[in-house]
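Structure ticket #2291
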Amino acid sequence: MNFMEEQQSLFDLHLDTYSQESLAETAKWGKFLAIIGFILTGLILIGAFTAGSLFNSLGSAYPLSSVNQFSTVAFIIYMLIISALVFVPAFFMYLFSTRMKKALKSNDQELLGRAFANQKVVFKFYGILTIIYLSILTIIIIGAVIATTLRR
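Resolution: structure written out below.
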């Protein structure tokens, strides 16, 4: 007996019609957001390499400019990281949406559990990203306060 069967027999959780309709609508919106995420990822990648080529051209045309090979590569790497930060939640949101839709259609408890596991990854990803962002913001604020205090 697997974990899903154990949980189901312990709690005997059933989805009523309203819950099923809500989850179906959530899956539709999730799929929409995932597709927008995929498109955005593609646009970011196109922009990264287009801008990288433009930076290289500027560096060649204006040798004394501040644009050099290192800054071009750094920009492309930065944009690749940003595209990954957009792609990962979009991918798991897409998995959630497609699995949820199939689970509701086929009344498959195991597929429903896997759909929720994919949704958990999306929320966990955004939660960790938020913690990182707030940590960096806190460090910046503390640094600004210290710098302002030392200046006086």
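Closing remark: The chain has four helices and no strands.
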